[in-house]
Specification:
It is built from 1 helix and 12 strands. The chain is α+β, with helices and mostly antiparallel strands. The protein is elongated, with a radius of gyration of 33 Å.
Length: 196
């Protein structure tokens, strides 16, 4: 009977030892897998930061500044500010004349600022888009009351919008043919940033 207990005891120890070895191997495999996964993620992060063989997506933006060599002009019932490109990066946005052209659809932050110098009236601007169907949609509007003396007041607007490919954006001053506008780059500008 002692011999039988002894054998049972020996088998229990062997099973416990085998279980312990298997558990250690499982923990080791798990650590190796975690380490390998972490290394893989770290490698992907490092590759994303380098241009060596990895595509790095460039943020698209465009900022236009008032063209100091020209004066605002009237087109129909709106005054249009002539623009020049101040900053530009990426392929999703371009410009032509006084308009911003969307090359890739997505969500965008659009902003515009005009420094008005017209005395004693309400001044403002709108940012509108025109799609391929040629319908015009107002996206942003800004109104500002002008003082009688020291007549300078900034009107700034900005917001997030969804735009389609080939949409055209313009910033115009409605119903103010005699609008006096500062053409300094830090006073009057129009821009867009693609979010995705």
């Amino acid at each position: 009977m002692i011999t039988g207990m002894s054998r049972t005891w020996e088998r229990s120890k062997q099973v416990a030892s085998l279980n312990s070895q298997q558990q250690r191997q499982t923990e080791k495999d798990s650590q190796t897998l975690c380490s390998s996964t972490a290394s893989s993620l770290r490698l992907k992060r490092e590759q994303a930061g380098c241009s060596g063989g990895t595509v790095v997506v460039q943020q698209s933006f465009l900022q236009l500044s008032a063209n100091t060599k020209e004066q605002p002009f009237v087109r129909g019932n709106v005054t249009v500010i002539p623009w020049i490109v101040a900053l530009h990066q990426g392929e999703a946005i371009s410009s032509t004349g006084d308009r911003i052209i969307i090359q890739q659809e997505g969500f965008f932050i659009v902003f515009g600022q005009v420094l008005f110098q017209s005395p004693g009236t309400i001044m403002g601007h709108i940012v509108r888009s025109r799609g391929t169907d040629q319908r015009s949609t107002e996206l942003l509007r800004c109104l500002q009351e002008m003082p009688q003396t020291n007549c300078a007041n900034t009107c700034h607007t900005g917001g997030m919008v969804k735009l389609e490919r080939e949409d055209e954006l313009e910033l115009v001053i409605p119903d103010r043919p005699q609008a006096q506008v500062s053409m300094d780059a830090d006073s009057t500008f129009f821009g867009i940033i693609r979010l995705n």
